[in-house]
Every structure is written in structure tokens, then in C-alpha cells.
Amino acid sequence: MAEVATARRSRITPEREAELYEAVLDLLREVGYDALTMDAVAARTRSSKATLYRQWGGKAQLVVKAIRHTKPGKDLGEIDTGSLRGDFHALTARADDAEMEQNGALMRGLAMAMHANPDLHSEFRSQIIEPEVADFRIVLQRAVDRGEVRPDCPALDFVVHMMLGAFVTCAVLDDKPPTRAFLTSYIDAVVLPALGVPTQ
User: Fold this and answer.
1) What confidence tens digit (pLDDT) does each residue in 152-172 have?
2) Nearest one of 168, 150, 162, 169 to 187, comparing CA atoms
3) Which residues have a Cβ under 8 Å from the Cβ of 73 and sit 6 or more positions away?
4) Which of 90, 94, 138, 195 suits a disulfide with 77, CB 3.0-4.6 Å?
5) Nearest 5°: CA angle at 90, between 85 and 95?
6) How many Cβ atoms from other residues are within 10 Å of residue 174's Cβ?
7) pTM for this entry
8) What is the pLDDT of residues 51-109, one digit of tens each?
């Protein structure tokens, strides 16, 4: 069975796969998750619907794979600058302000869709959220191992909440998307002090 799946996947080149993912995200931005159909993806990408279903199984899997594929730069767990502050600042540098604005709008739309689509929520959680949280834990554990953060620091359990909160609430409270400058300032003013890490 695994050999059959591999053979099927091998028919789509990495370049073609990237092209498909970009088209999916374009459609997602244009019409939103609920109005996005596999028929529309097939038409936009000049693919057969059968191929799309065979390759990805369904709309939720395809959308989440597209988001994961186009994530900027290296995974957070691979970033190791030697300090927690450096790692967090490197995290904010993975995307420029225009990309953050685009990604923020996409995520807000998907967050609403996830409430009504359990399959999307399940895929997003397993493919995006859980790997991101695991990466954050790696970075934080390195900081603990270096002696930057106390292992019993209560803020360790809330770092992901703080970071995600900054990203999401910026649009709600300030009516504008987050920027690198905002996130860097937020990290220095809120996240690192909560962890007991110097910002100088």
C-alpha cells in the first residue's frame, strides 16, 4: 500500500506540487475555505479532480498541506542562535511585513472555518499546531539547558499563547496586521521578561 501511495505521489514533481499549493492559497484568499471546492482547484490548476483526491484525500488535507508547504524559512526547532532572544528574533525574521499581513488574513479566515469544519480543525491541529508547539518546546528546552530560563518558570507553559496572542490581537486591537518591529518589541517587552530572560 505504501509503495502504491509513493508511486502515485511521484507523478507530481516538486515544482508542480508547489504550483498547486500556491493556486490553492490564492483561491483560499479569494473565496475563503467554505466556498473553495476541489472543482475550482482542478480548474485553476488544470488538474483532474480525481488526481487531487487521490493525492490529498480531500479539501482539508490539501489546504493544510498548502499552508505547511509555504511556511517561511526553516522550522523554529532548527533555529539555534545560542540565545533565546536571538532565536525568537530569528523567528520573526522568517517573513517580511507583507507576508505576515497576507498570512494573518489567511489564518483569521481559517480560524473561523475551523469552528464549522471538524476535518479542517483536525488536519490543522496535527499538521500545523502540534509541530509548531513541539518546535517551541525544543527552543525553550535549549534555553532551560543553557540556564537562561528556570525549569520551574510558570510562563514556560504559556509562551505559545503569548506569541499567538500578539499575532492575532494586533489586527483586532490596532486594526492593522503585526509587523516585524511590533513582534520584536513584544518579545522584548512581554515574552522574555515573563520568562526571566534579559533583553540586553
Assistant:
1) 999 999 999 998 888 888 877
2) 162
3) 93, 94, 95
4) 138
5) 140
6) 10
7) 0.77
8) 899 989 999 999 999 988 877 655 677 889 999 999 999 988 888 888 888 777 787 77
